[in-house]
């Protein structure tokens, strides 16, 4: 294990964090599976998770971390289908998420709702949530004691380096607040 310890929950934005597009503006339905790791929309655009996403999700599951999806998408049906068609190992990716929060509201609202749904309000208040997101405006989740992890490069998305560095940063911030 490269990380000292894991948070109780990791929240993922979807667009430009887990995959390289905005599902509500770049994807044309219907979708079809090309393989378990790749899908294609009706225009022939092919899409898959960023390179490190599958191994990161598997690692979180192996360490009993709750996984939450939080997306501002105006097209939750498309995002849901993408998560259903893309697989991690032989399992639809959607099955790895303990909560999925969609809609145009803030990530503060999404994360708070997921915490209530999962019975993890206390864990959230104790700083046990980390959000990985490409949009800096979502750093306002700090107001509910959720660590914000910025995914800077839309060409690379969530990488192993970002994942490990942000979990180390989260661990340091928890130690300094004790």
Describe the structure in your own words.
This protein is 33% helix and 21% strand. It is α/β, with parallel strands linked by helices and 178 residues long. It has a single domain, classed as Rossmann fold (3-Layer(aba) Sandwich). The strands form 3 sheets. A 5-stranded parallel beta sheet has the order 8-5-1-9-10, with helices on both faces. It has a 3-stranded antiparallel beta sheet with strand order 2-3-4, with no helix packed on it. The protein starts with 8 loop residues before the first strand and ends with a helix. The mean pLDDT is 94.
Helicity range of the residues? 25-40%
Percent of residues in beta strands: 15-25%
* Main beta sheet: 5 strands, parallel
Flag low-confidence runs.
none
C-alpha geometry = globular
In the CATH hierarchy, the third-tier topology is known as Rossmann fold
* DSSP strand count: 10
What pattern of helices and strands is seen along the backbone? EHEEEHEHEEEHHEEH
- How many helices in DSSP terms? 6
| CATH class group | Alpha Beta
Structural class: alpha/beta
Output the radius of gyration: 16 Å
Oligomer: single chain
Ends distance: 23 Å
Blueprint (SSEs and pairs):
Elements: E1 9-12, H1 23-26, E2 32-35, E3 38-40, E4 46-47, H2 53-62, E5 66-71, H3 76-85, E6 87-88, E7 91-92, E8 99-102, H4 107-117, H5 121-125, E9 129-133, E10 146-150, H6 160-177
Parallel strand pairs: 1-5, 1-9, 5-8, 9-10
Antiparallel strand pairs: 2-3, 3-4, 6-7
Keywords:
178 residues; alpha/beta; 6 helices; 33% helix
């Amino acid at each position: 294990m490269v990380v000292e310890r894991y948070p109780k929950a990791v929240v993922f934005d979807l667009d430009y964090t887990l995959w390289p597009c905005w599902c509500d503006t770049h994807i044309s339905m219907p979708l079809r599976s090309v393989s378990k790791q790749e899908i294609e929309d009706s225009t022939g655009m092919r899409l898959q998770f960023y390179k490190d996403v599958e191994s990161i999700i598997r690692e979180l599951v192996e360490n009993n971390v709750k996984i939450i999806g939080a997306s501002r998408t105006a097209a939750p049906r498309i995002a849901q289908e993408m998560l259903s068609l893309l697989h991690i190992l032989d399992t639809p990716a959607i099955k790895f998420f303990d909560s999925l929060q969609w809609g145009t509201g803030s990530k503060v609202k999404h994360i708070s709702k997921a915490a209530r749904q999962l019975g993890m309000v206390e864990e959230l208040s104790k700083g046990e949530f980390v959000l990985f997101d490409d949009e800096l405006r979502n750093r306002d989740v700090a107001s509910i004691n959720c660590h914000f992890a910025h995914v800077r490069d839309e060409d690379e998305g969530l990488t192993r380096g970002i994942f490990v560095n942000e979990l180390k940063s989260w661990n340091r911030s928890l130690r300094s607040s004790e």
